[in-house]
Design a protein that fits this description.
- This protein folds into three domains: about 55-100, Membrane-bound Lytic Murein Transglycosylase D, Chain A (Roll); about 105-150, Membrane-bound Lytic Murein Transglycosylase D, Chain A, CATH 3.10.350.10; about 185-310, endopeptidase domain like (from Nostoc punctiforme) (endopeptidase fold (from Nostoc punctiforme), Alpha-Beta Complex).
- The longest helix is centred in the first third of the chain and has 15 residues, at about 15-25.
- Helix content is about 25%, strand content about 15%.
- The strands form five sheets. Strands 10-15-11-12-13-14 form a six-stranded antiparallel sheet. Strands 1-2-3 form a three-stranded antiparallel sheet, with no helix packed on it.
- With about 325 residues, it is of the alpha+beta class.
- The N and C termini lie far apart (about 110 Å).
């Protein structure tokens, strides 16, 4: 025996609405637009697109309604990182403005005591590549909170030029041991520039920390050039050189305490610049020589310790 039908008033509201629509549709009284909607309900809305209109090169164009917060969140950044990437001091954006955006893994926020050398090793880069990717000079001093771009392995920039004339060659793809007398003139320079950012440590002779003479040993020892341990002793080897005749690769010596004695050493790079383990900067850095208010008056002299074949042409 079939179950008795329920009165319409006792049916669930959704069922009653369906019966009404079916009845109106059969009688031709249902508006066509509503019938189409009922027969073909709208598809679920698609996931919203990322804010900003993406363009090539890891950048977006700001669209109406975009904010610094929405753009940063959509691309895995913090607002301050987005602002730093674009050199902005305010989160106020304008429609049509082009912003650089990178995933969090493609940027690095400098932490206390971090150096260019340590960060570059962390990401498997050379210091030179990290400098070029961020358009930084070799003399830069990192600040805590500074955001650095980390280039992808396949998009490393070409080595930057030091003082617009001194090329820093990339490391060989497959380095091999070779006699010191076969070394080329730029081998020492590549080694020296790779040590930029290594912390200054008094008495240090390793890549975890260097003092001024320890830095010189790190650069020249792989070439077979034997030097004494201290800057004062290094000032007594090789050939004396007049400042006007300096060549890249010469050692330059300073009196930093005012007693007329050698207390500091660096390596001349050419173009009136030298590289040294700088206790004031607390890291290996590039400084100006003559004309610098600190180093200029303290310069005592220079010595040539490399064989002629190892010298570069920069003056």
């Amino acid at each position: 025996m079939p179950a008795p039908a329920l009165p319409a008033s006792r049916l669930p509201a959704a069922v009653r609405a369906t019966l009404v629509i079916a009845t109106l549709s059969l009688s031709g009284s249902l508006p066509s637009a509503l019938a189409a909607t009922t027969a073909n309900p709208p598809a679920s809305p698609a996931s919203p697109a990322l804010p900003g209109s993406a363009i090539s090169g890891g950048a977006v164009t700001v669209q109406k309604g975009d904010t610094a917060y929405s753009l940063a969140r959509a691309h895995g950044l913090k607002v301050d990182e987005l602002l730093a990437l674009n050199g902005l001091s305010s989160p106020d954006l304008q429609v049509g403005q082009v912003l650089r955006v990178r995933a969090a893994a493609a940027s690095h926020t400098v932490q206390p005591k971090e150096t260019l050398y340590g960060i570059s090793r962390q990401y498997g880069l050379s210091v030179d590549a990290l400098l070029a990717a961020n358009n930084l000079a070799p003399t830069v001093v990192l600040e805590v909170g500074q955001v650095l771009q980390i280039p992808a392995a396949g998009s490393l920039p070409a080595p930057r030029m030091l003082a617009q004339s001194l090329p820093v060659p990339p490391a060989p793809a497959q380095p091999a041991a070779r006699p010191a007398d076969s070394a080329t003139g730029d081998d020492w320079r590549g080694t020296a520039m790779a040590l930029l950012g290594v912390p200054y440590v008094y008495g240090g002779t390793s890549r975890s920390g260097l003092d001024c003479s320890g830095f010189v040993l790190q650069v020249f020892a792989p070439l077979g050039v034997e030097l004494p341990r201290t800057s004062a002793a290094q000032a007594r080897v090789g050939q004396p050189v007049e400042v006007a005749d300096l060549q890249a690769g010469d050692l330059v010596f300073f009196d930093t305490v005012g007693r007329g004695e050698v207390t500091h050493v660096g390596i001349y790079l050419g173009e009136n610049q030298f590289v040294n383990a700088n206790s004031y900067r607390k890291q290996v850095a590039v400084d100006r020589l003559q004309g610098d208010p600190y180093w200029g008056p303290k310069l005592l002299g220079a010595r040539r310790v490399l064989p002629p074949v190892m010298y570069g042409s920069a003056r």
